Amino acid sequence: MEQSAGRRSGGRAARQAARAARAIESVPFLTRRLEPYQVLSLEGLEMIEHNADMLLETVGVEIGNYPEAVRIFAEQGCDVEGTRVRFPRGLARSVIATAPSSFVQHARNPAHTVTIGDPHIVFAPAYGSPFVRDLDGGRRYATIADFINFAKLTQMTPALHHGGGTLCEPVDLPVNKRHLDMVFSHIRFHDKPFMGSVTAPERAQDTVDMVKVLFGEDFIANNAVLLSLANANSPMSWDYNMLGSAKVYAENNQACLITPFILAGAMAPVTVAGTATQTLAEAMAGMAFCQMVMPGAPVVFGSFASSISMQSGAPTFGTPEPAMMLFVMAALARRLKVPFRSGGNLTASKIPDYQAAYESAATFLPTVLAGVNFVLHTAGWLEGGLTMGYEKFMLDADQASMVEAMVGGVDTSDNGQAIDALIGNPPGQHFLGNPHTLANFETAFWRSRLADNNSLEQWEEAGSEDSISRANRSWKRLLDQYEKPPLDEAKEAEITEWVDRRKASFPDSDV
Amino acid sequence: MEQSAGRRSGGRAARQAARAARAIESVPFLTRRLEPYQVLSLEGLEMIEHNADMLLETVGVEIGNYPEAVRIFAEQGCDVEGTRVRFPRGLARSVIATAPSSFVQHARNPAHTVTIGDPHIVFAPAYGSPFVRDLDGGRRYATIADFINFAKLTQMTPALHHGGGTLCEPVDLPVNKRHLDMVFSHIRFHDKPFMGSVTAPERAQDTVDMVKVLFGEDFIANNAVLLSLANANSPMSWDYNMLGSAKVYAENNQACLITPFILAGAMAPVTVAGTATQTLAEAMAGMAFCQMVMPGAPVVFGSFASSISMQSGAPTFGTPEPAMMLFVMAALARRLKVPFRSGGNLTASKIPDYQAAYESAATFLPTVLAGVNFVLHTAGWLEGGLTMGYEKFMLDADQASMVEAMVGGVDTSDNGQAIDALIGNPPGQHFLGNPHTLANFETAFWRSRLADNNSLEQWEEAGSEDSISRANRSWKRLLDQYEKPPLDEAKEAEITEWVDRRKASFPDSDV
Q: Choosing among A19, A85, A270, A432, which should be mutated to test the B contact, i.e. which has the most B CBs within 10 A?
């Protein structure tokens, strides 16, 4: 008879009111007390490191259209042959040793400043979708209005510690200027840390210039306020735009997220160990470059690894092999002593249905248990990243809010052991009125804001809504309740003027 | 630019045909190579054991309406005071030491015989729902026709290694006779191992008598062919029906699943450590009873622990605290050296929506990583267990099929390392045509049968179906394709006659 008809106590409305009145507590980032889960022995990890070194030594990386980078690699001891850069065994690892094992990324609101690195976890929204989807309008090209909506929703969502970067592509703006609007929207509409442009080095420079106005040049010189995403062109290639942008950030002591983006089977071998080897090699090349440009510049080791359907070639998410890759890569990053980024709530589904949720959870829970430090794509990702979903954003962020209770570990204090409750409670009698229960009432058990745990009858009476409908009302309510966080007016005017001047200084272009 | 537009290779139809033609490979149960995930130190586990011993010593367990059990406990050294049974420190643990650390449960088809215990995993369908739900008919009371449908679907589902027990309650049959139809349906409609009745000791005896006809008395005397679920009446109580049924099975050397069913906050304290302590104490009392009745009888340590909403009192699933309880209980079971049961795909949602999938995955992945040996409720559970869902069954079973690829661990063989592929593949060139890719094409990457990984355009062209619609077609197709597994005609006639005789021997009753 394993089923739970449920016990419902009275005073529900009163409690809900009290709950609403209670301030939403927010921690700026999470601290993990649980040990990360390991799937590979020390021997196995060393084997992958050995193989990655061999790969860097024999194949090396191809550097596309970026002679200056090739020259930097050569100056620091790499073997260069045309555009091919090979690393003598051990070089990449020894260069990376100057990178910090963790660093602070400042937000304009100090209460939202985060520490990126062990044993911490920072959640950021999904990144880079050209489309958006909501229940009312379906799927459509993203605009700057959508971008601003997601910036506002991020501001309103305590489980998201970080504002992310390209919340969606504002395709209504010219390609060569939209980064200015994106960065400015991050500055204006939320006060959490955020990411800069990486689509061209001059756009990275624009980003740096803008945060110099916001934070002051002196502050920027010694503090990271940007964390920007550079993707490798897997396999084993880095191009001018990504690496050139990384150089701009590193030179300015701003953080870079160095991430091979790999769909195993297409951009890497079909095995977990093979993909891990290649990811390590590519990431090491990128991180080493940042350290060559500026020793000590903060870098994050990123791994985005999923697989493809060997039947159709379509990308797949939430499958077991990428989860294993994630566990392996997190362990390799810890051995390199750099912060690690991976995972998120990923799915190939077009809509937030059962498939989307299962695939998302099957990526996100390994993300948490692997000990990832920075999680891009925590909320919103649909359709293999092509679409940012409004309802998906809310549903994922809701689930992300449970992580704090998980990584906090088991409370073994006297209160956690609950001896008095156990000893004092007679067999067969429920604990609802037990003093220990009442004393822990407020904090016991994580509570979803979007799940429906009511009885069938209550649920039907309320309209038999599914998760998507509840999430739809939820994001609209948040946007209604949104208030712009305070920003110094003079500073805002100064940045506005800077952006206007910059925009006027060169013609629009769609490249 | 983290998104995956996807690469689609040609010859898709041909490949799908080849795939369909290929025999579905089935392993009778899984073998875990990964180490289980631990959330509590040795010290923490010893503390919970210490507290559980204290609970058994000071509070003890209340034995409802079962003087014979009280006498057995007393004879074996327990302190008895009326119906209260207390265990001198260490007694329960020393009595349980006679239980096997793993055992074989035989199926009538030897290819489906399972081993229950480390390092193995056995998946069984959900158990005990009085309602069923499907997309066409909505939610309604379950009938024996539904029960038979789920028995057939289980037979057709390789990811389910075990037939389970009360697949749903056939409420169209008299309460005091429906166990006969359920057990006979298990015998007839699938050939996997299954569970017996526990609603009354005489129904447990009926179950034993039926399998004696099926397997022969001699075989039964020395081999477990039944694994039956006895739930405690938490907190700290055991009743006549469950314990009496357990006694029948133990006396016949059949296996019992001893499971406290706990919604923390209601039937246990609101903390993880407190609930773990109580679960351990209750389970030890039940397992000790089985060993007192028949030393060496196979038992499985079960834990069903979820929590309630402290706001509404409603049961909740897929929350972080039950996941932590699961990890803790699995570690405690390993220390007791008995097989462990917990987890499943649990949810409070009424329908298979985003909430249902996320909550299910957030229970099921910890189930797998904790190292659970027997998983009831692997497929179908909806609405806190009140409803068995046809579409949910298919979706969960599909996800369960991924576990083999996960628990197999990382392949570090030469083929797994893929050195030749890595070294031989030029930078920037995809691996789709790489000899290593082609050589591993058939086995690389787990493949969902229900996920849609196609492009938006393909998906829309095919009708924009969500997961539920695909699963709906899937269970109907399986029922269409179902073929009854061969059963000796004389034996079937003998059991039919036995059941008919038994049914005629006492009047119908709804108690």
A: A270
Which candidate in B329, B410, B414, B452 is best for mutational testing of the A interface (most A CBs within 10 A)?
A: B410
Q: Please name the residue of chain A whose CA is at the shortest distance from the CA of residue B441.
A: A310
| Tally of residues, chain A | 511
Q: Closest-CA residue in chain A for B320?
A: A406
> CA-to-CA distance for A198 and A212, rounded, in angstroms?
17
Determine the Cα–Cα distance for residues B251 and B97; give it in Å rounded to an integer. 17
* Full 3-state SS string of A133-173: EECCCEEEECCHHHHHHHHHHHHCCCCCCCCCCCCCCCCCC
Percent of chain B with pLDDT over 70: 95
- Give B121's contacts in chain A (Cβ within 8 Å): none
Distance CA A294, CA A251 (A): 6
Q: Which residues contact B480 (CB under 8 A, 6 or more apart)?
A: none
**CA dist list (Å): A41 to A4, A370, B460:** 41, 14, 45
ipTM, 2 decimals?
0.95
DSSP-assigned letters across all residues of B320-372: HHHHHHHHHHHHHHHHHTS-EEE--S----SSSSHHHHHHHHHHHHHHHHHT-
Q: What are the pLDDT digits (tens) for B20-61?
A: 443 344 689 999 999 999 999 999 999 999 999 999 999 999
Select from A311, A419, A430 the Cβ nearest to the Cβ of B19.
A311
Summarize pLDDT for A384-401 with one digit per residue, the tens. 999 999 999 999 999 999
Nearest to A6 among B12, B307, B313 (CB): B313
Determine the 3-state secondary structure of A375 from DSSP: strand
Residue B80, number of CB atoms within 10 A of its CB: 15
In this structure, which long-range contacts are made by residues B239-242, counting pairs with CB atoms below 8 Å and at least 24 apart in sequence?
B239/B63, B239/B64, B239/B65, B239/B66, B240/B64, B240/B65, B240/B66, B240/B69, B240/B201, B241/B198, B241/B199, B241/B200, B241/B201, B242/B198
CA-based nearest distance B450→chain A, Å: 8
pLDDT digits over A438-461, tens only? 999 888 999 999 999 999 999 999
CATH number of B25-402+446-511: 3.20.20.480
Question: What is residue B315's three-state secondary structure?
Answer: strand
- pLDDT at residue A268 above 50? yes
Is residue B470 helix, strand or coil?
A: helix
**Tokens 């196979």, located at residue:** B298
Residues 6 or more apart whose CB falls under 8 angstroms from that of B30 comprise B120, B121, B122, B123, B161, B403, B404, B407
Whether the ω angle into residue B193 lies within 30 degrees of 0, i.e. cis, is no
Give the confidence band of B2 by pLDDT, cuts at 50, 70, 90: low
Q: Is B469 on the interface with A (CB under 8 A)?
A: no
